[in-house]
Amino acid sequence: EVQLVESGGGLVQPGGSLRLSCAASGFTFSSYWMYWVRQAPGEGLVWVSRINKDGTTMTYADSAKGRFTASRDNAKNMLYLQMNSLRADDTAVYFCARMDGCSRTSCYGNYGLNVWGQGTTVTVFS
Amino acid sequence: QSVLSQPPSASGTPGQRVSISCSGSNSNIGRNYVYWYQLLPGSAPKLLIYTDNQRPSGVPDRFSASKSGTSASLAISGLRSEDEADYYCAGWDDSLSGLEFGGGTKLTVL
Fold first, then answer.
1. Which of A5, A93, A105, B63 has the fewest CB atoms within 10 Å, i.e. the most exposed one?
2. For testing the chain B interface, which of A2, A34, A47, A59 should be mutated: the one with the most B CBs within 10 Å?
3. 3-state DSSP call for residue B83?
């Protein structure tokens, strides 16, 4: 079964750090670009970051630049999101998702975020 | 504030056809593909449409989509109670160099 399972969420104070993990199974993890998307309480979906197949290229939303770092370990089928300098507006459910149809260098014309995890909740409170 | 604009709500009765619009610009919808996602309460998002109008396997043909210029729309025909969910358009924005989601449309089946 194709599956993504997030973990690592929790309660953290402003300025703190968390590392989210996403365990992939049932497919060849190294063949896919991976994305992080979040949903704040009562709000819509917001893209956070993406990482290419071999982990050499990462792209971030402006809200994540300089604070969040995406990485992956293809040998372990794991995706990570290191979140530093957390703020109250980072409070959200964080989803990892698989992007289908990307080439080695581009996701133009992709087939969409076709596999999603159930999400892990991050709460930043003071 | 998203660069892709959707109406906050839509509604219809069972069996009816409803449409949800998504308005963008030349930096996103105008030159890149549009995707549609369904988000049921307490569930992970589900891909409904990719590359403007293609359905992944398993998505009923009651769901269809189109695009013209800088606007796109999702249509749901033969509305069912289980279609009650939030619907999001999405696509790459060249100016922002990022994936953008619309604000979402909450569909109510009356």
1. A105
2. A47
3. helix
